[in-house]
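Q: Structure tokens for this one, please.
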Amino acid sequence: MNKNKITLSLTAALALGMSTNALAAGFQLAEYSATGLGRAFAGEAAMADNASAQFRNPAMLTYLEGTQVSAGAIYVDPNVDVKGDLQVNGHTMGQTEARNIAHSAVIPNFYISRQLNDKATLGLAFGTNFGMRTDLGTDFLGSQFGNQAEVHTVEINPNLGYKINDQFSVGAGVRYVMAKGHFGAASPISLPELNIKKGQALKYMEGEDNAWGWQAGAAWQINPTNRIGVSYHSAVKLNLTGHANGIAYDKAYEVQGKMPLTQYAGSLPLELPASAEIASFHQLNDQWAVHASINWTDWSSFEKLEANIPALGGNDLIKQENWKDNYRFAIGTTYQVNEKLALRSGIAYDTAAVDEAHRTQTIPETDRTWLSVGAGYQWSKNLTLDAGLTYVYAKKAHLNETDGKINAIASGALQQPTQLSFAGTTSGDVWLAGVQASYRF
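A: Here is the predicted structure, written as tokens:
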């Protein structure tokens, strides 16, 4: 891949992700299968519907017989708005609003499992755990704090599950993550004194990196109708490498007595956080089953965004984030109508990964509630079709944004101390629809 075509500030981009407050916490994605979508991903570390089970818990491979292939996609349709007031030295310049800032996307997935013997099963997964895309436009008066972002990750995940005995199974796998994206901030007004035009880039960054991680899991079959599963995904440390450009960097370069460059090489360390899940599955009778899970994500590791741009003297603090760990609670049901048709439902609650005091325009993190329904239909002895539909409601949240570097540019233009700030709210919801086909050989 071309390292000049992707995100130097994956998390600055990520941080900008207004779509993220309508999906999983932060810039994390949960959308790995339509089967799980139909039950709000409740009990996933203890479920073994098809080959996609390995993505959440590789130990569940031991519950799959023969060779199985599963493929599908989930369509994400977010509706996220940001509105508020831009203030200069405490005086309001007027209300501004950006609507539908989060882009729709299709998230594909593919999985295969192969039973080697009565103890071991191999698996291979292709999916994603992190991603988003937003665009606030250049008419938004808060665009100096960030107006465009894209984050894209693809994960290749080979796994092995091993059945110790009839009660206990374990599994593990490696994760190869390929990441790319971009981040941009633009001037919301013209500053003739500095030759800055409205909508002109103040900062733009792009870069890419590939890195390794791992996952492990276990399952305990308490009895034929009750099961508990646990899983852990390691952190993945990226060093996104690419380039930066924009007026803010040009001005910093001119201070050194040098002519501005077209672009400035740099990198940004980014850690995709570790996560864990504990889940349960209970078959109540021939028709009804209930499943539940609790997820934890180590978002407290996300303290700041700090790029390294050697030509500009080294480290460039983009944002102080101060996130906290996030928790997700989910419960779902499966109703077996007959031998061919199964109906699913679920509800989940995601806690925000940032406190009110640290929420900004670039990270409008807030609590989310999931409501899901789904169905599975056994088309033939070997082929099963699944579909899921979810509505996610994000709690309305307040935000406040300031940036000393932007203030310094304004102060230079106006030749007086200048404080720019943005105070407002973010709100939104999202629809998710997924389909999946699974075939057993």
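A few notes: The chain has four helices and 20 strands. Residues 219 and 229 are 4 Å apart (CA to CA).
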